[in-house]
Amino acid sequence: MTTYVLVHGAWHGPWAWERVTPLLHATGARMLIPDLGASGDRGLHGDARTIAAALDSVPEDEKLVLVGHSYAGLVVREAADLRPAAVDHLVLVDGWAGPDGASLFALAPDAFVTAIRAAAASGDGWRIPPPPPAAFGVTDTDDAAWLADHLVPQALRTFTEATRLTGAVDRVPGTAIHCRLAAYPFDRFAAALGYRTLPLDGPHDVMLTDPERLVRLLLDGRGRPMRFENRKFEV
User: Fold this and answer.
1) Residue 231 lies in a domain
2) How many domains does the chain have?
3) Is the pTM of this model over 0.90?
4) C-alpha pair distances (Å), 162 with each of 65, 101, 146, 186
5) Phi–psi pair at 72, nearest 5 degrees
6) DSSP string covering 103-136, please?
7) Which of 178, 136, 185 is nearest to 10 (CA)?
8) CA distance 117 to 229
9) Is residue 234 part of a domain?
10) Domain boundaries, position 59
11) What is the DSSP string of 172-187?
C-alpha cells in the first residue's frame, strides 16, 4: 500500500487537500494529512519536526510519498532529510525549495519580501495576515469565498528560518509539479536540485481548482498515461 503524506502550505490547513483525498482514496491509497497549526510563533524547523513525527507513524512496509505544497516544499525537504529512509518519493507542488541554508525569503524576490514584512508589521509583527484568494489564483466566486473563510495567519518566522539539511534528502528521489500560472520559478528551484519537473496548467492552489489533474500526476510517478472516469482512476 502507498501512503501519501500531504502537507499544506502557508496560510492553509489540512482542509486544503479535501478535494484531493477522496480521489486518492478511490485508488486504494492511504493518506496522512498533518496540521502545521495556525497559532504560536513557530518556525520552519518546528514544522519539519511535526512532519518527521508524522512519518514515524507510517508502517515500514508501506511505500511513502511525501507531498509538500508551496511553503511546505521547504518543510518536506527538511523532514525528509531527518527521515531519509522513511520516504520513497518526494513531491513538490509549486514548492519553494533550495539547498541547505535557504529560506523562503532568500528564494523570493525582494518585492515579495518587502510586501510580506509590511503586512506583518501592520499587525502584531510576528504573523502575516492571509492574502486574498486571488493571490493563490482562485477566482471562481464560490471557491474564493470558501477559501477566504478558511485562510489563517502565518507565522513570519516560517519564512525567515533557513533550512538545515545534512544532504540526506538528496538520496530521496524527487518530482516537482509546477503550475504554469505561478508567479515564481518553482520549476527552476526544483531543477537546480536535480528533481524531475512536470508542468500542470492551473493556478497555485490547483489542489482546489483542479484536483483531478493534480491527482493524475501524484499517481503517475513513471509517466504512464491515466484516464479519469466516474471519480476513479484507471491505468
Assistant:
1) no
2) 1
3) yes
4) 24, 5, 32, 18
5) -65, -10
6) -HHHHS-HHHHHHHHHHHHTTTSSEEPPPPGGGG
7) 136
8) 45
9) no
10) 2-220
11) S-EEEEEETT-SS-HH
In this structure, what CATH number is given to the domain that contains residue 101? 3.40.50.1820
**Dihedrals φ, ψ of 31, to 5°?**
-125, 145
Grid cell locating 23 = 480521489
For the chain, the residue count is 235
Quick one: which of 100, 130, 148, 90 has its CA closest to 9? 130
Which grid coordinates are listed for 140? Answer: 471562481
At which residue does the C-alpha cell 474564493 appear? 144
> Hey, which residues does 234 pair with through a beta bridge?
227
DSSP string of 21-33, one letter each residue:
HHHHHTTT-EEE-
Tell me the mean pLDDT per 10 residues along the chain, length 235: 97 98 96 89 96 96 96 98 97 98 98 98 94 96 97 97 98 96 90 96 96 93 40 36
Residue 13, all three cell numbers: 490547513
CA distance 102 to 77: 11
Half-sphere exposure of 30 (CA within 13 A, CB side): 12
Say which residues have a Cβ less than 8 Å from residue 229's Cβ, sequence separation at least 6. Answer: none
CA dist 160 and 173 (Å) reads 26
